[in-house]
Amino acid sequence: MAGAGDEPIPSPNIWNWPEVYERENRAQDAEGAIWAALREAVPWAGADVLDVGCGDGFHLPVFAAEAASVTGVEPHAGLVERARERTAGLAVVHRAGAARLPLPDRSVDLVHARTAYFFGPGCEPGLAEAQRVLRPGGAIAIVDLDATVEPYGGWMLADLPRYRPDRVEQFFERHGFSMRRIATTWRFPDRETLEAVLRIEFSRPVAERAIAATTGLVLPVGYRLHVRRKEAFRPA
């Protein structure tokens, strides 16, 4: 997603290997635990939904099945085209970043972001934009990987030694978000897919370690769901 300025923050996995990332998306959250938690926290039936950092639009059809309208925002031109092809007639997809959303004030009920841009300190411009486009009573829901959960979290931290999960959680708490931890299962159809996915997510030595440690086709992966509602106006 885009950073505080106009330059996007690269997402090497999906930007460089969109076909492999498609297979990863299909393997993730095999039991639908993230969707169940989202539905409980921020039901979107009849709502206007914005997905920030929508990538190639993988999640947009799920929202479109119940929402009044769905908009995706993504800075990478190739992914925007893929998202538009996937969601023709279901959603509108714009090429833009989180810090400059191409939507009017108070125009959506839910801002959703999954493993995109909102990684803690530094994402304040995107939070401000989400607040701007939300209607009173609306919510921003941020889904991100939980690096405190093994084994995936340990592999993350091996590649990102400066990343501090506790500081990220404290950041969202300071900004008024609730937090829920979600246990999920990634289920792969074959070893080829599992190994390809791990190799686009991690450096070569960490990926090889992760592949050696994963003996089957199922991988437990933890997530965090952060939710903050925009206070509704209450007349005096």
TrEMBL record:
Keyword Transmembrane helix: no
InterPro entries in the record: Methyltransf_11, Methyltransf_Superfamily, SAM-dependent_MTases_sf
Tree of life domain: Bacteria
Segments forming domain Methyltransferase type: 50-142
One Pfam family here: Methyltransf_11
SUPFAM superfamilies: S-adenosyl-L-methionine-dependent methyltransferases (SSF53335)
GO biological processes: methylation
Signal peptide (residue range): none
Record's keyword terms, sorted: Methyltransferase, Transferase
GO molecular function, one term: methyltransferase activity
PANTHER family reported for this sequence: METHYLTRANSFERASE (PTHR42912), N6-ADENOSINE-METHYLTRANSFERASE TMT1A (PTHR42912:SF93)
Protein name: Class I SAM-dependent methyltransferase
Organism field: Pseudonocardia zijingensis
